Amino acid sequence: MKVLQRYFATEIIRAVSFVMLALLVLFSFFDLMGELTEVGRGGYRLSHAAVYIALRLPGYVYEFMPIAVLIGTIYVLAQFASNSEFTIMRAASMSTVKAGSILAKIGLVFVAVTFLFGEILSPYSTKQAEKLKVSTMGATIAQEFRSGLWTKDLIKANGLNGPVIGSRILNVREVLPDRSLVGLKVYEFDSDFHLSREITAARSEYQGKNLWRLFDVVETSFPKTLAKQDMLSIPSQKFASRDVVSEITPDILSVIFVDPDRMSAYDLAAYTKHLTENKQDSERYAIAFWKKITYPFAILVMMALALPFAYLHVRSGSISLKIFSGIMIGLVFYLFNSLFSHVGLLNTWPAPVTALAPSLLFSMIAMIAIRYVDRH
Predict the structure, then answer these.
(1) Whole-prediction pTM value?
(2) How many Cβ atoms from other residues are within 10 Å of residue 194's Cβ?
(3) How far apart are CA 16 and CA 75, in angstroms?
(4) Which domain of life is it from (predicted)?
(5) Residues in CB range of 238: below 8 A, 6 or more apart
(6) What is the pLDDT of residues 55-64, one digit of tens each?
(7) Which residues, 6 or more positions from 42, have their beta carbon under 8 angstroms from its beta carbon?
(8) In 176-309, where do the E strands start and end?
(9) Fold that domain 149-256 belongs to in CATH
(10) In terms of C-beta density within 10 A (0-12 exposed, 13-18 middle, 19 or more buried), how is residue 297 classed?
(11) For 304, which of 66, 211, 288, 322 is 20 to 30 Å away at the CA?
(12) Which of 183, 219, 227 shows the shortest CA–CA distance to 198?
């Protein structure tokens, strides 16, 4: 069986690699057509567009891996069936369970590769792609918002530790490519939600370890017992610089502009925790987190869906028809997976259920199909 395992693995990996290459070339062409409208803005040139598209390829590898595995596996199994190789394997005592076991072991390799792309390569390359585009165009993040970027943070007694003593709302006019902030306004509230302090700064630079250094600072404090008629006479203090400790980091700010499906599970978990602590809606990112955890295992489901095609003889349809069937099944799964996320978000279904439901449904279909062909 080791010979069969090696034979299956070699053929399937070769076929999946070819399908993935075809998909990457196709979608790179579509992306290039879309980027041509941006070429010429600022310093953005065709060479930058090519690098930008190349940096986005790891994300496509992650997204299309289940589809590529399905099509590639169907092609190989259909070839085995048309050449009567699978019939000979079955005659040599290879059961359906054994064939499924062989495919599962190969599938685990693709699962590991998908995790690698989804957790490390894709998030990093996507950030680099966006930085490249922003820096070459001379644009700034958040400039498309009329009132700037808004986010919320908690104020704790000892910086990042200790009990919560208040909250703050931050407004940023622009986020520059070097992760510095321009036009910062901070509104701090006490535990009773009374405005206690307003801070404005011309710019702010991140110093690391949750420390922001504000420059050209104007600070206004509002006593809790302040009468309404005294609001206009409150003095303000000016500082050349001021340090503020906050749970908000450049990585959290960048999350707002990145597609959750392109983020790592670690970043999604951190941002979901941040939203939950600040009493903000985190359902979208919770669903994305569970999809990120479960999506690579959809490859095993695709392998199971491909197995029945090995039991179909040539008279049941040509190889091209089987491959077309595989493409349609893959597209249906991809679209259903995306649609179910939106439906789950609208109906506030539990995030794990929303993420797992498509794979569970297609797993049931695969089991029914395998049982049917095995009996007939």
Answers:
(1) 0.75
(2) 12
(3) 9
(4) Bacteria
(5) 217, 218, 219
(6) 999 999 999 9
(7) 136, 137, 138, 139
(8) 181-190, 195-208, 211-221, 236-245
(9) lipopolysaccharide transport protein A fold (2.60.450)
(10) middle
(11) 288
(12) 219
Asked whether 44 and 137 are in contact (CB, 8 A), the reply is yes
Residue type, 312: L
Structural domain spans, the chain: 2-138+282-375, 149-256
* Strand arrangement, sheet containing 236-245: 149-158, 161-175, 181-190, 195-208, 211-221, 236-245
- As beta bridge partners, residue 317 has none
Q: What percentage of residues in the chain have a pLDDT greater than 90?
A: 16
Alpha carbon distance, N-terminus to C-terminus of the chain:
25
Which residues, other chains included, contact 210 with Cβ-Cβ below 8 Å and sequence gap of 6+?
A: 159, 160, 245, 246, 247, 249
pLDDT of 288? 84
pLDDT tens string 299-356: 999 998 888 887 766 554 566 777 787 788 888 888 888 888 778 777 778 888 888 8
C-alpha torsion sign, points 48, 49, 52, 54 = negative
pLDDT at 256: 64
> What does the pLDDT look like over 223-277, one tens digit per residue?
776 555 555 567 788 888 888 888 887 777 766 666 777 788 888 887 787 777 7
Instruction: Count the residues in the chain.
Output: 376
| Helix or strand (DSSP H, E) at 163 | strand 161-175
Q: Which among 244, 269, 253 has a CA at the least distance from the CA of 152?
A: 253
Count CA within 13 A, CB hemisphere, residue 50.
3
The tokens 């680099």 sit on which residue? 128
The answer to whether the beta carbons of residues 114 and 265 sit under 8 Å apart is: no
pLDDT band at residue 105 under the 50/70/90 scheme: very high
Please choose, from the candidates 127, 175, 125, the residue with its C-alpha nearest in 3D space to the C-alpha of residue 149: 175
Nearest to 133 by CA among 258, 295, 268, 263: 258
